[in-house]
Amino acid sequence: MNTRRLRPAGIGVATAAMVIVGLLSGIGAAQAATPSVMPLSSQGCNDNVCIQLSGNAGGTALVEAWARNTTFTGTMRLTGPNGVNKVKSGTWKGGKGNFANFTVSNAKAGQYCVNGTSNSSGNEGTPCETLKKG
After folding, report:
1. Cα separation of 72 and 40, whole Å?
2. Nearest-CA neighbor of 95 among 71, 124, 128?
3. What pLDDT, on the 0 to 100 scale, is given for residue 117?
4. Rounded to whole angstroms, how far apart are CA atoms 10 and 98?
5. CA of 42: how far to CAs of 13, 87, 127, in Å?
6. d(CA 31, CA 20)
7. pLDDT digits (tens, 9 = 90+) for 45-82
8. Does residue 79 sit in helix, strand or coil?
9. What is the predicted pLDDT for the residue at 134?
10. N or C: which end of the chain has fewer CB within 10 A?
11. Cβ proximity of 119 and 91 under 8 Å
C-alpha cells in the first residue's frame, strides 16, 4: 500500500510542529504558528559580538549574545533603558558555540546593547538593537 504524509501547502515542517505542539498545549493554531522571535532585522553584530533581541515593550524581552568568530573568556554586559544592566561571565565560543541569555521583564522601548569584554584583550564589540513598542 502506498502511503503519503500530508502537510498543509506552504507550511514548513518547523511551523507545522509548532502548530501541533500549540494545539496539544491548549493554545490556538494561529498563536502557535506565530514565531516568538522577531525578524532577522533584530539581530546584529559589532566586531566579535553578536546579539538577537526578541519581545516587545511592556512585555518580556529576550536577548541572546554570542562570540561571532573568535572564542574569548570574559563578560557579556547587557545595558538598556531605565538602567538595565546585567552581566554574564564565561568562555564564549566563537560561531554561536554558546550564548549569554538575558531576560528583561517589563521591558521598555529603546536601545539594548551587549558589550563583550575579553579578560585578556579587552573590548570584543558592542552591538545594539532597538526594542519597539508592541
Report:
1. 25
2. 71
3. 98
4. 32
5. 24, 21, 11
6. 11
7. 999 999 999 998 888 999 999 999 999 999 999 999 99
8. strand
9. 64
10. N
11. no
Whole-number Å distance between alpha carbons of 116 and 65: 9
Tally of CA atoms within 13 A in the half-sphere of 18 that contains its CB:
12
C-alpha distances in Å from residue 109, one per residue of 59, 94, 131: 10, 30, 5
Residue 80 near residue 111, CB atoms below 8 Å = yes
Instruction: Write the pLDDT tens digit of every residue in 9-35.
Output: 443 433 333 333 343 334 443 333 333
C-alpha span between 99 and 119 (Å, rounded)? 17
Domains of the chain: residue spans and CATH: 1-35 (no CATH), 40-131 (2.60.40.10)
C-alpha cell at 100: 549569554
